[in-house]
From TrEMBL:
Keywords: Endonuclease, Hydrolase, Nuclease, Nucleotidyltransferase, RNA-directed DNA polymerase, Transferase. GO terms for molecular function: RNA-directed DNA polymerase activity; RNA-DNA hybrid ribonuclease activity. Belongs to the beta type-B retroviral polymerase family. HERV class-II K(HML-2) pol subfamily. It comes from the Eukaryota. Residues 1-181 form the Reverse transcriptase domain. The keyword NAD does not apply. It comes from Oryzias melastigma. This is ribonuclease H.
Amino acid sequence: YREGQRELHCVFVDLEKAYDRVPREELWYCMRKSEVTEKYVRAVQDMYEGCKTVVRCAVGVTEEFKVEVGLHQGSALSPFLFAMVMDRLTDEVRQESPWTMMFADDIVICSESREQVEVELERWRFALERRGMKVSRSKTEYMGLHVVLRFTQLSQPLAAVVKEKPRIFQKNGLQWIMAGV
């Protein structure tokens, strides 16, 4: 994009409590859609059936309560199950790299215009939230990568003037901001 002098707009999507929000029915559905053998689906169901937990805090320990949603924290199997669920839940909205990139619960959506990346974000939000996941609006971030035609040294920080988060970096011992056209 830099060589072609085209802009690239990215949204870094944050899922709220991603592992804790995976609906169990979605997990079973996604395992079957991924052609996991039924005996393994049942084995995982057995692991999750009747799960209970307690909360320890400064004043003591709560009574046991059922955990009916989410993946087990600390389980070696949970990252694999989460990746399988995300793969299936995002089939309809996911595009080829570089337009969509996913790793665990980190999602990056890219487009050539801010408007289009906002449309894509809404498609993703709808697809995920209708299946039990939740996009954190406060932690999801936008970054526009603009064509750099020249570098200009700053005499003072522009953070108070720039509406979007400025891309400030160090070069040759000086502080610089990326300015595009």
